[in-house]
Amino acid sequence: MANFILNEQNWEKVKIKFLRKYRDLAKEDLSFQSGKEDVLVQQLAQLVNRDKKYIEFTIQKALADSKGNRL
Asked: Considering the entire predicted model, what is its pTM?
């Protein structure tokens, strides 16, 4: 279970940060459905070739600094 809760608004901000950091990702790769954070984490881990803990940490970091540009 993911250690965070996303909604459409904060996911858009996190998604932009992921697209900046991982330029080979496409917007279509980053689809999100509310309540399915675990599926998103697993999908992102596969896409960027990192483990789930790293993805969760990265998302939490992005949520903590929603106004910043860096991920």
From this structure: 0.84
At 11, the amino acid letter reads W
CB atoms within 10 A of CB 69: 8
Convert 20-45 to b/e letters by CB count within 10 Å (16 or more is b).
Answer: eebeebeeebbebeeeebeebbebbb
Q: What is the pLDDT of residues 7-29, one digit of tens each?
A: 888 999 999 999 999 999 998 88
Q: Is 11 exposed, middle or buried (0-12, 13-18, 19+ CB in 10 A)?
A: buried
| Tokens coding 35 | 């309540």
